[in-house]
Amino acid sequence: MSMLRHRKKSPYYGVEIIKNLDSFPKVNKEDFIEKSRIGGTVTVIAYILILWIIVHEVRYYFESHVDFKFMPDKDYDAKLRLNLDLTVAMPCSSIGADILDSTNQNMLKFGKLDMMDTWFEMTSEQRLNFDDIRRVNSYLREEFHAINDLLWKSGHSITLRKLPQREIIDSNPPDACRVYGSLVLNKVAGNLHITAGKSLHLPEGHVHISAFVSQAEYNFSHRIHHLSFGDSGVGIIHPLDGEEKIADINMALYQYFVEIVPTDVETFLSKAKTYQYSVKDSLRIINHDKGSHGVPGIFFKYDISALKVVVTQSHEPLLKFFVRLSSTLSGVFVSAGILKDCILFITKKLERTLYPEQKKNGVSVEKVPEEVYSL
Ligand SMILES: *[C@@H]1O[C@H](CO)[C@@H](O)[C@H](O)[C@H]1NC(C)=O
């Protein structure tokens, strides 16, 4: 702005003295008016541009950013909560769930998972709900990079509707078992498994008593309604929700290798210490004759990442915003000034070559009204 004021005043300061020294040809009045019109147009454009920039910058300032930082997780003593809800295609009396972690502690120390007899075949309403969860979850997984900022900022989880209750009770005896609940685990690697028979904890370790369940009854087809660690919520996607596996062989061993990443979320709307996980799964057919040994069942082998992710939401500092805004705006002013000067210079040149005779009868500067000087 100051630059423009200067230009406005300069012809009037000491003009009388300077005028006498002026040996440059004068331009006529029409030229000046024409040129100031150019200046005016440039000014208007510059102001529109400035307004547009201000609007965008302010909007950008109010938008927050989500930042991710990785750092070693030193919170060794923290507990890890596991939330599980899954249905296995075997009656509850035939299966048992257990956990063994790398400190050799077992289920008894961590809590208890509830078991409820049910039917593996879902009602149509349940099927719709389950397919919804599956679809939404796979969409979220695929589009995660496009929407993750939004998920974090929204501060709430994608809480999908719980599986609706079965309305019509099947006349057949229950053929499946729903295993659900939360366990509080040590923050070390471990192995949660659901196998045939009940497990028995002995001082020497734990054994699975599966002798009473014949192998022909084994069916480890399962559906995972939910698996998460820590507090659910805050923009975290649980990759295993909506997983369904149908086994056509009795001796199936399903393994999920779960890598848990501690995640601290500090957004404007929520503050939580939680966990994300990634998972790989495999299916192995147990066949002792062919050297594929093991116990059929569903195994979740989990391990905890040594690095945690810290998710923060931040604003640009106000000062930085002002500095950037003012430098951008002054840049626009300077460029507009240069642009105007260039246009004036070019038009002047053009006029001189087109109407060379007008050079002689120039109009002196002081007669031109003030406003024509303004940019
Ligand atoms: C296990 O149960 C599912 C669902 O009822 C069925 O489709 C599958 O064929 C069964 N598998 C075995 C090995 O019986």
From TrEMBL:
Its main location: endoplasmic reticulum. It is a multi-pass membrane protein. The chain crosses the membrane at residues 38-55. It is found in: Endoplasmic reticulum-Golgi intermediate compartment membrane. Residues 18-107 form the Endoplasmic reticulum vesicle transporter N-terminal domain. Keywords: Membrane, Transmembrane, Transmembrane helix. It comes from the Eukaryota. One of its GO terms (biological process) is retrograde vesicle-mediated transport, Golgi to endoplasmic reticulum. Residues 170-338 form the Endoplasmic reticulum vesicle transporter C-terminal domain. Pfam families: COPIIcoated_ERV (PF07970), ERGIC_N (PF13850). GO terms for cellular component: COPII-coated ER to Golgi transport vesicle; endoplasmic reticulum; endoplasmic reticulum-Golgi intermediate compartment membrane. InterPro entries: Erv, Erv_C, Erv_N. PANTHER family: ENDOPLASMIC RETICULUM-GOLGI INTERMEDIATE COMPARTMENT PROTEIN (PTHR10984), ENDOPLASMIC RETICULUM-GOLGI INTERMEDIATE COMPARTMENT PROTEIN 2 (PTHR10984:SF30). Belongs to the ERGIC family. This is Endoplasmic reticulum-Golgi intermediate compartment protein 2. It comes from Nezara viridula (Southern green stink bug). The lineage of its organism: Eukaryota, Metazoa, Ecdysozoa, Arthropoda, Hexapoda.
